[in-house]
Amino acid sequence: MGANVTELQALLVLNALPNIGPITTNRLLDTLGGDPRRIFTADNRTLQSARGVGPVIIDTIRGWEQRFDLAREEARLAQAGAEFIPARDPRYPTALREIHDPPIGLYQKGNYRWNRPAIAIVGSRRTTLYGQAVAKRFAGELARSGFCIVSGLARGIDSAAHEGALEAGGATAAVLGNGIDIIYPPENLELYRRVEAGGAVVTEFPFGRRADRQSFAMRNRIISGLCAAVVVVESDVSGGSMITAKFAGEQGRTVFAVPGRIDQSTSAGCHQLIRDGAMLCTSTDDILEELNALPGFRLAADGSAVATAKPKPELTAAEATIYACFTGGAILTLDDLAEHTALPYAELAPALMMLELKKLVLRRIDGTYEARA
Prior knowledge:
alpha/beta, single chain, Arc Repressor Mutant, subunit A
């Protein structure tokens, strides 16, 4: 890669290359001082010093010109009227930057600037009239309260959520599981255009990338990562919305589930979420009251949602030392923390527990730890 390549161009290439992904790319950026251009000029030994980087990834980086046409991608961006927003750009969504595996950049169409709190409304593609009506009503009421409504532009609940926000004159954002030039499902072309005009269409995938099972799962983590809360209106137990709810829980987001009929498979997933600890939701009042009780939110006098600065809890010296280890979205085991901090386990364990109680650190299902968003 030539010396005249910009940081933005380097990020476009890294974002599109196979076998790497955002976690590995961010590790490489941390290793090389944050300049993506250095990834293409560093020697193999330096690249391998980043965790998870081996011969396959190095070969992919060295042969990037055979895998990605940078000039063509830039031409497509200009032609589509889209932009690629790097994670370090002030316009990049703050909430998304805080998750442990944020995209290194977002392709975006539409002028929305992520300047208000967001709530995701998601659910089944095969939905009932009841589910569509609830999603549309909730989206409209929350949009009028000042929230951006985020969903995935899919059939069913997603489409109803976008429609409700647009009809209320509010902001809505669609997160795609494919390139921004691909309309899926194709019958949502007009809705795509309306969402772009009234908010934003975003994706982490380059032009031409088709949707598949992996890309939809990656899309779901962005939907939850953008938001303060996720509302599941209808879903069966194996639906994609259950994956979004799982990501939301791991990211420290609040999960709401709307109950339905016990003989409808489309509500079985919501009922399972409620059994597992999700907030039962029968009206938008349930959502607003719960968010109003959280640090970082308050309701204005007119009932609209306003983001506020999160208070910073006081930390002991040990807690501050441990918390600093999670800079950059690191996910660490207890042994990792002991190595990084040089604290004895007798001091490390209780300090880590206090960070959990102060809602600064989250213990994941696999026993590792990460900073809460």
